[in-house]
């Protein structure tokens, strides 16, 4: 439907009729969804997320309900709301020449990527909030003036290579 217009910085979201707004809104939503699917069309809309926020143009792309062999729903029916870019969000980048990487550069990048890989184990990272809570309890139990500060190994200051 949208091609390159759907590749913007903002993520799309799913719009469905989970909470009826007025009497008959569920019927209206379903009829609109069925007609869009039947005609293979999308809708262009103006979307205001909340009060005092400027409206955005969005595309509502219909999605049909998908079920597997056991008749279990794998994708719900509804619309994907795709935020459309403003004119200044679009630009053409003119590449003057195509510069391929040399074999040495490719080998060096492979080496760097191998060094960046590590086995992730969730139990090797402690929950910093929980650790601080335990240190606070320990300080209370031992009548310490101030608890030790827990080290946050999940923050961006630590690099695991």
Q: What can you tell me about this protein's structure?
A:
The chain has 161 residues and is of the alpha+beta class. The protein has 2 domains: 3-87, Ku70, Chain: A, Domain 2; 103-141, no CATH class. The protein has 3 helices and 6 strands. The chain has a 4-stranded antiparallel β-sheet with strand order 1-6-3-2. Strands 4-5 form a two-stranded antiparallel ribbon. The longest helix is centred in the first third of the chain and has 15 residues, at 25-39. It is extended and about 70 Å long.
What structural keywords apply?
telomeric DNA binding, 2 domains, 17% strand, 27% helix, alpha+beta, Ku70, Chain: A, Domain 2, 4-stranded antiparallel sheet, two-stranded antiparallel ribbon, damaged DNA binding, 161 residues
Secondary-structure topology with pairs:
Blueprint: E1 13-15, H1 25-39, E2 43-47, E3 56-63, E4 66-67, E5 73-75, E6 78-83, H2 103-116, H3 128-141
Antiparallel strand pairs: 1-6, 2-3, 3-6, 4-5
